[in-house]
Amino acid sequence: MRKNIFKWLIIIFLLLAIIGGGVAWYFYNMIYGPAVSGKQDQYTLFIPSNADFDQVMDSLTHHKIIKNEQALRWVAQRMSYPDNIKSGKYTIDAGMNNRELIGKLRLGKQEAVKVVVNSYRDFTKMAGAVGRNLEADSSKLLQLLNDPTYLKSIAYETHTVSSLFLADTYQFNWNTNEEQFVERMQKEYKKFWNDERRKKAADLNLSILEVNTLASIVEEEAYHKEEMPKIAQVYLNRLQKGMLLQADPTVKYAVGDFTIKRVLNKHLETDSPYNTYLYAGLPPGPICLPSKNAIEAVLNPVEHNYLYFCAKDDFSMYHAFAHNLKQHLINARRYQNALNRKRIF
Predict the structure, then answer these.
(1) Across the strands, what pairs with 112?
(2) What is the pLDDT of residue 1?
C-alpha cells in the first residue's frame, strides 16, 4: 500500500514538474524568445505623437513586424509600456525578443533622421524637405514662417527670417514638430555665430543680417566654392566705395524668376528694393538660404582690388575679374558673344 502511495506521489511530482517546466518554458519563451519576424533584417516603426498603446500594436501587427501579438501585449503590460508610450522613429532588428523590443520603445531609443537644408530660394522647398523627413507638417511650417506675430516673438520679420536658416545637413528626432524645428535652427544659428565670427562681421562694418544677405548673393553667383571669397571681396569693395552692387541674382529675385538666362534691360528696370541695379547697398534680406561656405567667404574674403566680374566665355562657370569698367566691358562682350553663338537669349 505504501509502495503504491509512494509510486503515485512520484508520478504526481513528475507530472507537476513537467507541467511547471512547460509553464516556465512558455513564459520564458514569451519574454525571451524571438518575437520579431525574420522576413527582413530590420523594420522601421513610426510612432506618432499622442499615439496610444493600441495604435502602436496596430502598427506592429499591420506591418507584420511581430510574431505573437498576445505575447507582446502580455510583456508590455508587465513592463508598464502602455503608460510610457514615446513617439519617434524606431529601427527594430529581426530576432529581437519581446523584452528587448518593449525595452527599446519604452526608453524612447529612436533613430536620428537626416534633414538636408539646401540653399533654397524660398521656404516652400525647405518646408517640403522637413515634412518628408520629420513629423512636422510642411504647410504648418510655412504658415509659421509667414506669421508676423510668431516671427516677432523670435525677433525676426518675414524678410529677415531666412537668415536664421543655415544650409547644412542636420540630425533630428523624427517626432520634431514645426516650432521645435525652428527652435533647433535658432540653436544652430547661435552656435555658428560665435564671438569670433561676430567680431569678423563687425570688422567689416556689417551686421549678421547683412553678412547673411551678402552671402546669399555670393551663393547665387558662385558655382565653384573656391571662387566664393574672391566674389565676396568684389562686393565688399563696391560697398566700401559706395557703388551699386549690380548683382544679377538680386534682379532675378526681384523679378521672381531664377530661370532667366540673360538679364536684360527690361529686368533691370524692375522697381524693387532687391534690385541692386536701382538701389544702393544690400537688399533688405537674403535672396536664398546661404551655405556656411558662402558666409565664411564673406567673413574671410580674398583681399584684392577687383570691382567687376562676369562669367567666362568658356562656360566653365568660373569668372573673369576686372579692376576697371573698360576691361569688364571687354570680358562681358566675350561672354555675350558666346551666349549668342549658343543661341541663349
Answers:
(1) 173
(2) 57
CA dist., res. 274 & res. 182, Å (int): 25
> How far is residue 222 from each of residues 14, 173, 260, 309, measured CA to CA in Å?
84, 33, 16, 11
Check whether 15 has a pLDDT greater than 80.
no
Q: CA 224 to CA 69: how far, in whole Å?
A: 56
C-alpha cell at 195: 564671438
User: Looking at the DSSP assignment, which residues form a beta bridge with residue 322?
Assistant: 308
Q: Are 91 and 42 in contact (CB under 8 A)?
A: yes
Lowest mean pLDDT among 28-42, 170-184, 220-234: 28-42
Number of helices and strands in the chain (H, E):
15, 6
Distance, CA of 40 to CA of 292 (rounded, Å) = 40
- Copy the grid coordinates of residue 118: 539646401
Q: What is the pTM of this model?
A: 0.84
User: Quick one: cell of 43?
Assistant: 523594420
Q: Is residue 19 predicted with pLDDT exceeding 70?
A: no
Residue 231 main-chain phi, psi, to 5 deg: -65, -40
Helix or strand (DSSP H, E) at 98: helix 98-107
Query: What DSSP string runs through 227-294?
Result: GHHHHHHHHHHHHHHT-----HHHHHHHHT-TT-SS--HHHHT---TT-TTTS-S--SS-SS--BHHH
pLDDT of the residue at 11? 55
Amino acid code (one letter) for 282: L
Distance in angstroms (rounded) separating the CA atoms of residues 107 and 313: 60
At the top level of CATH, which class does the domain 33-110 belong to?
alpha beta
Beta strands in 138-229, from DSSP E residues, in sequence order: 168-173
Residue-wise pLDDT for 157-186, tens only, equals 999 999 999 999 999 999 999 999 999 999
Instruction: Name which of 79, 83, 80, 76 is nearest 61 in CA terms.
Output: 76
Three-point CA angle 66, 69, 75, nearest 5°: 100
